[in-house]
Amino acid sequence: MAQDPAKTDKNVLPSVAIDGGRARTVRESKKLTQLYVANVVGVTTDTISRWENNRYPSIKRDNAEKLAGALEVELEEILRQEEPEPDSEGAEGVDTAKPRRWTLLVLSLIPVLALVVFLTSRLQVVTPKAVRWAPHFAAPGEVVPVQIKIPRSAERNYGFILKEHLPPGWHLVSAQPGNAAVDPDGSSVKWLVPAGQGSVTVSYTVRLPANLPTGKSGNLRGEIVLHDGESNRTEAVAGSASITVGAYHWADSNGDGRIDDDEIMPAYYVCEDMKGIGLDWKTIEAIWSGKGYRWDPRSGFAVLTVEAPGGVKK
Protein backbone atom coordinates (compact mmCIF):
# COMPACT_ATOMS: atom_id res chain seq x y z
CA MET A 1 0.00 0.00 0.00
CA ALA A 2 1.33 3.42 -0.95
CA GLN A 3 2.10 5.66 2.00
CA ASP A 4 0.38 9.01 2.37
CA PRO A 5 2.98 11.71 1.40
CA ALA A 6 1.71 14.07 4.12
CA LYS A 7 2.23 11.41 6.77
CA THR A 8 5.67 10.66 5.37
CA ASP A 9 6.73 14.31 5.68
CA LYS A 10 5.50 14.53 9.23
CA ASN A 11 7.30 11.37 10.20
CA VAL A 12 10.51 12.45 8.52
CA LEU A 13 10.47 15.88 10.23
CA PRO A 14 9.57 15.31 13.90
CA SER A 15 11.90 18.23 14.73
CA VAL A 16 12.59 21.52 13.01
CA ALA A 17 15.31 24.15 13.25
CA ILE A 18 14.02 27.57 14.30
CA ASP A 19 15.75 30.92 13.83
CA GLY A 20 16.02 32.09 17.45
CA GLY A 21 17.04 35.61 16.53
CA ARG A 22 14.04 35.97 14.25
CA ALA A 23 11.72 34.62 16.97
CA ARG A 24 13.13 37.15 19.48
CA THR A 25 12.67 40.01 16.99
CA VAL A 26 9.05 39.06 16.35
CA ARG A 27 8.34 38.74 20.09
CA GLU A 28 9.87 42.11 20.95
CA SER A 29 8.14 43.86 18.02
CA LYS A 30 4.80 42.62 19.35
CA LYS A 31 5.70 43.70 22.93
CA LEU A 32 5.38 40.12 24.21
CA THR A 33 7.34 38.95 27.24
CA GLN A 34 9.23 35.68 27.48
CA LEU A 35 6.94 34.75 30.38
CA TYR A 36 3.83 35.19 28.22
CA VAL A 37 5.27 33.11 25.35
CA ALA A 38 6.46 30.43 27.79
CA ASN A 39 2.98 30.13 29.30
CA VAL A 40 1.37 29.76 25.87
CA VAL A 41 3.87 27.15 24.67
CA GLY A 42 3.89 25.31 28.00
CA VAL A 43 7.61 25.60 28.75
CA THR A 44 9.80 27.68 31.07
CA THR A 45 11.20 31.13 30.35
CA ASP A 46 14.69 29.58 30.41
CA THR A 47 13.65 27.35 27.52
CA ILE A 48 12.35 30.34 25.53
CA SER A 49 15.64 32.14 26.20
CA ARG A 50 17.64 29.12 24.97
CA TRP A 51 15.53 28.90 21.84
CA GLU A 52 15.99 32.60 21.10
CA ASN A 53 19.75 32.25 21.55
CA ASN A 54 19.91 29.17 19.27
CA ARG A 55 21.15 26.90 22.04
CA TYR A 56 19.46 23.89 20.40
CA PRO A 57 20.00 22.82 16.76
CA SER A 58 16.34 21.82 16.55
CA ILE A 59 13.19 21.57 18.65
CA LYS A 60 10.06 19.44 18.46
CA ARG A 61 7.82 20.45 15.62
CA ASP A 62 4.86 20.57 17.99
CA ASN A 63 6.67 23.11 20.21
CA ALA A 64 7.72 25.13 17.17
CA GLU A 65 4.10 25.33 16.02
CA LYS A 66 3.01 26.43 19.50
CA LEU A 67 5.79 29.04 19.49
CA ALA A 68 4.62 30.39 16.14
CA GLY A 69 1.07 30.51 17.47
CA ALA A 70 2.16 32.46 20.55
CA LEU A 71 4.01 34.91 18.30
CA GLU A 72 0.99 35.13 15.96
CA VAL A 73 2.98 34.23 12.84
CA GLU A 74 3.21 31.31 10.44
CA LEU A 75 5.69 28.60 11.37
CA GLU A 76 7.76 29.25 8.23
CA GLU A 77 8.48 32.79 9.42
CA ILE A 78 10.58 31.57 12.35
CA LEU A 79 12.25 28.55 10.71
CA ARG A 80 15.94 28.67 9.97
CA GLN A 81 16.66 29.13 6.28
CA GLU A 82 19.07 26.42 5.20
CA GLU A 83 21.51 26.84 2.33
CA PRO A 84 20.47 24.80 -0.75
CA GLU A 85 22.43 21.62 -1.34
CA PRO A 86 24.85 21.80 -4.28
CA ASP A 87 23.78 19.99 -7.46
CA SER A 88 25.29 16.52 -7.32
CA GLU A 89 25.29 16.41 -11.10
CA GLY A 90 27.73 19.28 -11.52
CA ALA A 91 29.22 20.24 -14.87
CA GLU A 92 31.82 17.88 -16.18
CA GLY A 93 35.34 18.73 -15.14
CA VAL A 94 34.33 21.02 -12.27
CA ASP A 95 36.37 20.37 -9.14
CA THR A 96 33.94 20.31 -6.18
CA ALA A 97 36.62 19.59 -3.58
CA LYS A 98 37.68 23.24 -3.15
CA PRO A 99 34.15 24.59 -2.54
CA ARG A 100 33.65 21.87 0.05
CA ARG A 101 36.92 22.78 1.78
CA TRP A 102 35.86 26.44 1.85
CA THR A 103 32.51 25.43 3.31
CA LEU A 104 34.22 23.47 6.08
CA LEU A 105 36.53 26.40 6.77
CA VAL A 106 33.62 28.85 7.01
CA LEU A 107 31.69 26.49 9.27
CA SER A 108 34.69 26.14 11.56
CA LEU A 109 34.92 29.94 11.86
CA ILE A 110 31.25 30.44 12.77
CA PRO A 111 31.75 29.93 16.55
CA VAL A 112 34.65 32.42 16.52
CA LEU A 113 32.64 34.98 14.56
CA ALA A 114 29.66 34.50 16.85
CA LEU A 115 31.87 35.18 19.89
CA VAL A 116 33.27 38.32 18.26
CA VAL A 117 29.77 39.59 17.45
CA PHE A 118 28.60 38.85 20.99
CA LEU A 119 31.53 40.66 22.62
CA THR A 120 31.19 43.60 20.23
CA SER A 121 27.50 43.98 20.99
CA ARG A 122 28.29 43.97 24.70
CA LEU A 123 30.91 46.67 24.28
CA GLN A 124 28.50 48.82 22.29
CA VAL A 125 25.76 48.66 24.92
CA VAL A 126 25.45 51.97 26.71
CA THR A 127 24.45 51.08 30.24
CA PRO A 128 21.57 53.29 31.36
CA LYS A 129 22.59 55.72 34.07
CA ALA A 130 19.75 56.34 36.48
CA VAL A 131 20.16 59.90 37.78
CA ARG A 132 18.30 61.29 40.79
CA TRP A 133 17.30 64.89 41.37
CA ALA A 134 16.43 65.92 44.93
CA PRO A 135 16.23 69.37 46.56
CA HIS A 136 19.09 70.73 48.66
CA PHE A 137 16.86 71.56 51.64
CA ALA A 138 13.70 70.33 53.33
CA ALA A 139 11.89 71.40 56.48
CA PRO A 140 10.72 68.90 59.15
CA GLY A 141 7.18 67.63 58.52
CA GLU A 142 7.08 68.98 54.95
CA VAL A 143 6.56 67.15 51.64
CA VAL A 144 9.43 67.25 49.14
CA PRO A 145 9.79 65.97 45.55
CA VAL A 146 12.32 63.50 44.12
CA GLN A 147 12.77 62.54 40.46
CA ILE A 148 14.83 59.79 38.84
CA LYS A 149 15.48 59.76 35.09
CA ILE A 150 16.57 56.59 33.29
CA PRO A 151 17.50 56.95 29.59
CA ARG A 152 16.69 54.05 27.25
CA SER A 153 17.54 53.71 23.58
CA ALA A 154 15.26 52.12 20.97
CA GLU A 155 17.78 49.29 20.59
CA ARG A 156 18.08 48.57 24.31
CA ASN A 157 14.49 48.96 25.46
CA TYR A 158 14.50 46.36 28.23
CA GLY A 159 12.57 46.63 31.46
CA PHE A 160 14.04 47.19 34.90
CA ILE A 161 13.33 47.32 38.62
CA LEU A 162 13.98 50.57 40.49
CA LYS A 163 14.56 50.49 44.24
CA GLU A 164 14.76 53.59 46.45
CA HIS A 165 15.79 53.42 50.11
CA LEU A 166 14.53 56.31 52.25
CA PRO A 167 16.11 57.73 55.43
CA PRO A 168 14.66 56.43 58.72
CA GLY A 169 11.23 57.88 59.44
CA TRP A 170 10.73 59.37 55.96
CA HIS A 171 7.54 58.12 54.31
CA LEU A 172 6.33 57.94 50.73
CA VAL A 173 3.36 60.22 49.97
CA SER A 174 2.70 59.42 46.30
CA ALA A 175 4.46 58.38 43.11
CA GLN A 176 4.32 58.49 39.31
CA PRO A 177 4.15 55.86 37.94
CA GLY A 178 2.46 54.08 40.82
CA ASN A 179 4.97 52.22 42.94
CA ALA A 180 4.91 48.42 42.77
CA ALA A 181 5.71 47.75 46.43
CA VAL A 182 6.64 49.43 49.71
CA ASP A 183 8.37 47.66 52.57
CA PRO A 184 6.23 47.33 55.73
CA ASP A 185 8.33 49.90 57.57
CA GLY A 186 8.25 52.27 54.60
CA SER A 187 12.03 52.33 54.26
CA SER A 188 12.16 50.97 50.71
CA VAL A 189 10.05 51.64 47.62
CA LYS A 190 10.17 49.56 44.43
CA TRP A 191 8.93 50.12 40.89
CA LEU A 192 8.66 47.52 38.13
CA VAL A 193 9.07 49.24 34.75
CA PRO A 194 8.28 47.06 31.69
CA ALA A 195 10.21 47.09 28.43
CA GLY A 196 9.45 49.99 26.12
CA GLN A 197 10.92 52.80 24.09
CA GLY A 198 12.25 56.11 25.31
CA SER A 199 13.52 57.48 28.59
CA VAL A 200 11.64 56.87 31.83
CA THR A 201 11.05 59.37 34.65
CA VAL A 202 10.00 58.09 38.06
CA SER A 203 8.72 60.82 40.40
CA TYR A 204 7.74 60.55 44.02
CA THR A 205 7.10 62.73 47.06
CA VAL A 206 8.16 62.01 50.64
CA ARG A 207 7.21 63.55 53.97
CA LEU A 208 9.90 64.20 56.55
CA PRO A 209 9.24 63.42 60.23
CA ALA A 210 8.02 66.51 62.10
CA ASN A 211 10.50 65.97 64.95
CA LEU A 212 13.68 65.91 62.84
CA PRO A 213 16.47 68.11 64.19
CA THR A 214 17.62 70.80 61.80
CA GLY A 215 21.15 70.84 60.50
CA LYS A 216 21.17 67.09 59.87
CA SER A 217 21.08 65.44 56.45
CA GLY A 218 18.89 62.66 55.11
CA ASN A 219 20.53 60.40 52.54
CA LEU A 220 18.70 58.68 49.70
CA ARG A 221 20.07 55.48 48.20
CA GLY A 222 18.85 53.51 45.22
CA GLU A 223 19.66 51.06 42.45
CA ILE A 224 18.19 49.74 39.22
CA VAL A 225 18.15 46.06 38.32
CA LEU A 226 18.34 45.70 34.54
CA HIS A 227 17.09 42.55 32.82
CA ASP A 228 19.02 42.22 29.56
CA GLY A 229 18.11 38.99 27.82
CA GLU A 230 19.55 36.19 29.92
CA SER A 231 20.85 37.94 33.02
CA ASN A 232 20.29 40.75 35.52
CA ARG A 233 22.76 43.42 36.50
CA THR A 234 22.51 46.03 39.24
CA GLU A 235 23.59 49.65 39.00
CA ALA A 236 23.50 52.35 41.67
CA VAL A 237 21.38 55.45 41.10
CA ALA A 238 23.62 58.48 40.57
CA GLY A 239 22.96 62.19 41.16
CA SER A 240 21.59 63.94 44.25
CA ALA A 241 21.55 61.84 47.40
CA SER A 242 21.66 64.18 50.41
CA ILE A 243 18.93 66.57 51.65
CA THR A 244 19.77 68.98 54.46
CA VAL A 245 17.04 69.35 57.08
CA GLY A 246 16.44 72.99 57.96
CA ALA A 247 13.96 75.89 58.04
CA TYR A 248 13.97 76.17 54.24
CA HIS A 249 11.46 75.48 51.52
CA TRP A 250 12.58 72.82 49.04
CA ALA A 251 12.21 75.31 46.15
CA ASP A 252 14.66 77.68 47.88
CA SER A 253 17.73 76.03 46.38
CA ASN A 254 20.28 78.39 47.93
CA GLY A 255 18.61 78.63 51.37
CA ASP A 256 18.40 82.44 51.47
CA GLY A 257 14.83 82.59 52.76
CA ARG A 258 13.17 83.55 49.47
CA ILE A 259 12.22 82.00 46.11
CA ASP A 260 13.62 84.29 43.43
CA ASP A 261 13.27 84.43 39.64
CA ASP A 262 16.08 81.93 39.12
CA GLU A 263 14.36 79.40 41.39
CA ILE A 264 10.72 79.77 40.41
CA MET A 265 10.95 78.22 36.91
CA PRO A 266 12.75 75.02 38.01
CA ALA A 267 10.16 74.67 40.81
CA TYR A 268 7.35 75.21 38.29
CA TYR A 269 8.65 72.48 35.97
CA VAL A 270 8.97 70.05 38.87
CA CYS A 271 5.41 70.78 40.02
CA GLU A 272 4.07 70.37 36.48
CA ASP A 273 5.87 67.04 36.03
CA MET A 274 4.62 65.86 39.41
CA LYS A 275 1.12 67.31 39.36
CA GLY A 276 -1.28 65.46 41.63
CA ILE A 277 1.23 63.80 43.96
CA GLY A 278 1.32 66.16 46.92
CA LEU A 279 3.23 69.34 45.99
CA ASP A 280 1.88 72.75 47.07
CA TRP A 281 2.42 75.05 44.09
CA LYS A 282 0.22 77.81 45.51
CA THR A 283 2.54 78.32 48.49
CA ILE A 284 5.59 78.40 46.19
CA GLU A 285 3.96 81.01 43.96
CA ALA A 286 2.92 83.09 46.98
CA ILE A 287 6.45 83.07 48.40
CA TRP A 288 7.85 84.11 45.01
CA SER A 289 5.31 86.94 44.75
CA GLY A 290 6.09 88.11 48.29
CA LYS A 291 9.28 89.17 49.99
CA GLY A 292 10.25 85.78 51.32
CA TYR A 293 9.04 83.30 53.90
CA ARG A 294 9.46 82.14 57.45
CA TRP A 295 9.11 78.54 58.64
CA ASP A 296 7.45 77.67 61.93
CA PRO A 297 7.52 74.10 63.35
CA ARG A 298 3.83 74.35 64.27
CA SER A 299 2.30 76.23 61.34
CA GLY A 300 4.72 75.56 58.48
CA PHE A 301 5.61 78.25 55.93
CA ALA A 302 4.36 81.83 56.28
CA VAL A 303 4.73 84.28 53.38
CA LEU A 304 6.43 87.60 54.19
CA THR A 305 4.83 90.50 52.37
CA VAL A 306 6.75 93.47 53.81
CA GLU A 307 10.46 94.19 54.03
CA ALA A 308 11.28 96.86 56.58
CA PRO A 309 14.23 99.26 56.30
CA GLY A 310 17.51 97.51 56.89
CA GLY A 311 16.36 94.34 55.19
CA VAL A 312 14.30 92.99 58.10
CA LYS A 313 11.43 90.95 56.77
CA LYS A 314 7.98 91.01 58.38
Radius of gyration: 30 Å
CATH architectural arrangement of the largest domain: Sandwich
Order of helices and strands: HEHHHEHHEEEEEEEEEEEEEHHEEEE
Strand order of the largest sheet: 7-10-5-3-14
Low-confidence sequence ranges:
1-12, 83-97, 122-126, 308-314
Structural class: alpha+beta
Bin the strand percentage. Answer: 25-35%
Query: What oligomeric state is this?
Result: single chain
CATH topology category name of the largest domain: Immunoglobulin-like
Question: Helix amount, in percent?
Answer: 25-40%
* End-to-end C-alpha gap: 108 Å
- DSSP E strands, number: 19
What is the highest CATH level, the class of the largest domain?
Mainly Beta
Number of domains: 2
Principal-axis shape: elongated
Major sheet details:
5 strands, mixed
Tally of helical segments: 8
Estimate the mean pLDDT confidence.
81
Topology:
Elements: H1 5-12, E1 15-16, H2 20-29, H3 34-41, H4 45-52, E2 59-60, H5 61-71, H6 97-124, E3 131-133, E4 137-138, E5 143-150, E6 160-165, E7 171-176, E8 181-182, E9 188-193, E10 200-207, E11 217-219, E12 221-228, E13 231-236, E14 238-239, E15 242-245, H7 261-273, H8 281-289, E16 292-296, E17 300-304, E18 307-308, E19 312-313
Parallel strand pairs: 3-14, 4-15
Antiparallel strand pairs: 1-2, 3-5, 5-10, 6-9, 6-12, 7-10, 8-9, 11-15, 12-13, 16-17, 18-19
